[in-house]
Amino acid sequence: MLILFFSHKDSVRRFTMRSLPLAHFRFSVLMLALSAISGEQTDRKPNFVLMMVDDMGIGDVGCYGNNTIRTPNIDRLASEGIKLTQHIAAAPLCTPSRAAFLTGRHALRSGMDSVGGAPVLLFLAGSGGLPPNETTFPKRLQQQGYTTGLVGKWHLGVSCERRGDHCHHPNQHGFSYFYGMPFTLFDDCQPGRDTVIMEEVQVSLQILTTLLGIGLITLVCFRILGLLSVSLLLLTALFVVTVLVTAVWIIPFKLLPIWNCIIMRNQEVIEQPLTLETLPQRLLDEALDFMKRNADRPFLLFFSFVHVHVPLFINPAFAGKSRHGYYGDNLEEMDWMIGKVTDMVDSLGLTNNTLMYFTSDHGGHLELVDAEMGQTGGWNGIFKGGKAMGGWEGGIRVPGIFRWPGRLAAGEVVDEPTSLMDIYPTLKYLAKDTQPDRNLDGHNLMPLLEGQIERSEHEFMFHYCGVDISAVRWHPPGSDSVYKVHYLTPKFSPPGAIGCYDTGLCFCDREQTRHNPPMLYDIFHDPSESRPLMPDTEPRYAEILQRTAQAVKNHQNTLANEQQWDDDGSQPVAGAGALTVESQMTMDKIVWRPWLQPCCGTFPFCGCKEEK
User: Fold this and answer.
1) Cα(390)–Cα(485) distance, integer angstroms
2) In Å, how far are 178, 182, 228 from 261, measured between CA atoms?
3) What pLDDT is stored for residue 32 in this prediction?
4) What is the pLDDT of residue 373?
């Protein structure tokens, strides 16, 4: 009797000559060989499709309770995967939140939190950005053989010292391919809309320019009429000053559509300024093409939507179709795009080997109201606060959906605290990357998602507003409660409002209320943070404040002992000791620098249109 064994890893199949006719035996051998080949393809590392929306509130999505905006494709991801209900952004603003997402570490660790300059990068030609020696998950995946792509928004800097050094560019941070906006959408990108960048500075420069102009004309008239003896030297000096101040105001600010609103393919500027109307379709096409090009190898696609940040798109196919004006139209267009991405994954036969993830970079912008369009910002459901509002739940609680048929159960809900910073260690684990790493603030989510553990590894979570810890949450072992301690909260304006309508955003560099003793909530039982706990209503009141204060000290010790790593972020520098991270968000790094301005053509005569 001839006994044959064909083994592929842990699978062993056994056949005998007596049990099969010769023809059937040969056919079985062929099938086993094909199975082994197929097994090798099935056992390859998984693909990752990460989708992040800009400025969307958790209350905007159907599967999170919205019944007036249609999001069937996002809802489908949730029904076919796992929905996280307590998924938290590391910051309530774009730049620091995205830096933390990519690195698995609070933005403070990489110098990407504001120290009083500006809360986000304001000019594409500033020198600040994600430091070149930072380690990102696309860098890690590249080292594991992945092809990595970013389509859409970046907003983490471009160059450091000269135009074209691209030290902060996506290509330098692990993305093999980049197509999209190296900056972000601002109102400047839509013709006819006024800029919102550094409005106070612009107003001051405009007033100063006007006063200088009036003064110069007055003195010239007095000299001509002989009413006042004014030297020609004084008039010349005043003229030069007027011209310089006018240039400082007009050139950086009035030409922002040219300077900030551009499209790059890798490190080449291919459209300047961008055409807003066709941008969504082009981004979608690039995302789909990237998956098709790399369907036969492990890939990471980060589809970083420019929806639903203002200015809102006006696509005839979606205009007027929602029940919430232009904002609702944009949400439904974004949902349609997610459906196309999901369909592409399925049509390529990658469904069971692809982890899909959907989220927002932070909560909705409550204060955005347009005289013609109505509400143009997001809705955060029952949660208090919104974009830029420190540790209030509405600005940091975001959707979190994972879909991976065959690996993750369908229709499950996880109520445990999780973070956008958890994506880094999760992808690292799935890519079988066991190399040493820096201090991470995130945790591998797979044990929680697969039901191997029931509780999140986040016993404590720290919520930053700029460089300050504004709040801390504590999920005590053995308890359903999630306590939230607020040390700082923004002052809403006008008083009694739910946001900062007088100033547009509750920035952390503006006046805040310091609470002593801190405000305390149990957000498991009071998710809207409407019933503060007091010593007479919470038996553990003193213990909670003491435990969270100690947790803050322990966390800050990890900041003080940051170890310096080499330029590619792969190994620690021996004997480097403590590292003081240079802030990338100071005013001198944020302001516009002509010599750093990306440009197609000859600077300052920049201009081109993408050719398809």
Assistant:
1) 12
2) 16, 9, 48
3) 39
4) 80
Instruction: Tell me which residue has tokens 């955003």.
Output: 505
106, 155, 458, 463: the active-site residue: 155
**The pLDDT of residue 562:** 62
CB–CB of 532/484 below 8 Å? Answer: no
Task: Annotate 401-461 with DSSP letters as a single string.
Answer: EEE-TTTS-TTEEEEEEEEGGGHHHHHHHHTT--S-----S----HHHHTTS-SS-S-SEE
| From 87, 94, 168, 599, active-site residue | 94
Nearest Cα to 513, choosing from 541, 460, 471? Answer: 471
| Pair of tokens at residue 309 | 């940040």
**Coil, helix or strand for 96?**
helix
341 touches 305 (CB < 8 A): no
- The whole-number pLDDT of residue 563 equals 47
Query: Tokens 């929602």 correspond to what residue?
Result: 322
What letter represents residue 298's amino acid?
P
C-beta separation of 463 from 469 below 8 A: yes
Q: What is the Cα–Cα distance from 380 to 88, expressed in whole angstroms? A: 13
C-beta separation of 185 from 280 below 8 A: no
Q: Which of 41, 19, 111, 101 is nearest to 564 (CA)?
A: 111
The DSSP bridge pattern shows strands 369-370 and 299-304 to be unpaired
CATH of domain 47-186+260-565+578-605: 3.40.720.10
Edge-first strand order for the sheet with 483-490 is 460-465, 468-474, 483-490, 512-522
Q: How far is CA 548 from CA 50, 310, 331, 536, 552, in A?
A: 33, 37, 38, 19, 6
Hey, what's the torsion of the CAs at 228, 233, 237, 243, to 10 degrees? 80
Task: Read off the tokens for 302.
Answer: 């980060």
Asked if 477 contacts 430 with a C-beta cutoff of 8 angstroms, the reply is: no
Classified as helix, coil or strand, 17 is coil
* Mean pLDDT split into 10-residue runs, the chain, 612 residues: 35 32 42 40 84 97 95 98 98 96 96 81 94 96 97 97 96 98 92 75 78 84 80 84 77 86 97 95 98 98 96 92 94 98 98 98 92 86 94 97 97 97 98 92 98 96 93 96 96 89 82 92 97 96 96 90 49 42 88 94 93 76
Which phi and psi (to 5°) does residue 543 adopt?
-65, -40
Q: Is 155 a catalytic residue?
A: yes
Rounded Cα–Cα distance for residues 289 and 295 (Å): 10
Ranges of beta strands (E only) in 283-363 are 299-304, 354-360
Length of the chain: 612
Rounded CA-CA distance 314/308 in Å is: 12
Q: Is the pTM of this model over 0.70?
A: yes
pLDDT at position 567: 47
Q: Which pLDDT value is given to residue 551?
A: 95
Q: Which two tokens stand for residue 58?
A: 């958790």
Q: Which residue's structure tokens are 């930053």?
A: 464
> Between the CA of residue 138 and those of 23, 48, 142, 425, what are the distances in Å?
50, 11, 6, 12
Handedness of CA 286, 120, 105, 331 (dihedral sign): negative
Q: What span, in angstroms and rounded, lies between the C-alpha atoms of 610 and 247?
A: 30
